[in-house]
Amino acid sequence: MVEQAAGIARVSLAPDSIGMIPVEESRQLAFNLEQKPVAKPSALAVDLLIRATLDTHEPDLELPPVRVSGRMRRTLGSYMPSRRQITISSRLLAMGAEDDIRQVVLHEIAHAIVHARWGDKPSAHGLEFRSVCDEIGAKPRRFVAVTTEKWGSQVRYLSKCGHCKVLIVRKRRMRSVRCVCGLKLYPKSWRAVAPNEGGDTSEWVML
Ligand SMILES: [Zn+2]
Ligand SMILES: [Zn+2]
User: Fold this and answer.
1) Which ligand approaches the C-alpha of residue 178 most closely?
2) CATH among 3.20.20.70, 3.60.21.10, 3.90.1150.200, 3.30.2010.10 for 44-136
3) CB count in 10 Å sphere of residue 146
4) Which residue has the higher pLDDT, 36 or 77?
5) Sorting pLDDT into bands at 50, 70 and 90, what band is 200?
6) What is the pLDDT of residues 158-190, one digit of tens each?
7) How many Å lie between the centroid of ligand 2 and the Cα of residue 40?
8) How far is the CA of 104 from the centre of ligand 1 (A)?
9) 23 C-alpha vs ligand 1 centroid, how far in Å?
10) What pLDDT shows up at residue 201?
11) pLDDT at 12
12) Structural Rg of the chain based on CA atoms
């Protein structure tokens, strides 16, 4: 209580402070720090890695741009032969270490090359797969070991106040929240995001 009293005294003694305004301003300022733009995760680096790898090892193979999926939970990447589609988890892209992303992408490229060379005959992670892995510098394993423990603590959930339009950022999907404008909200949906550590740290990236 003593510290709080001292704090209040200091605020009211400041020459430019009138009533509650400095307190309100500082609250607003602290909140504005969370008002970062929300961007889609960029898969540009992944597409470049795919193209560079194919140019060297399977130049005639054309793959569509990588698909980024926010629905993948336990899967970090996949290859769908019917569409020649490599899909990468948005969580991996947003929060994964660079080398982990690289290993997952190379693993899926290996599946694509095996499919291009031998069709559906080889078993998923069999001899052909392992030889392609050796060729392109992927680890010739069924799984890519990725440390995901810290990812959960980085995830935030965004909602928008319908009244003042500010972003509301929380660690969990809450049933109700109070906005800085005073309105109590019952958000119907929360959007999962993470700090964009791979890129611009002043923005959120959608998961
Ligand atoms: Zn695989
Ligand atoms: Zn509001």
Assistant:
1) 2
2) 3.30.2010.10
3) 19
4) 77
5) low
6) 999 989 988 899 999 999 999 999 999 999 989
7) 24
8) 9
9) 55
10) 65
11) 33
12) 24
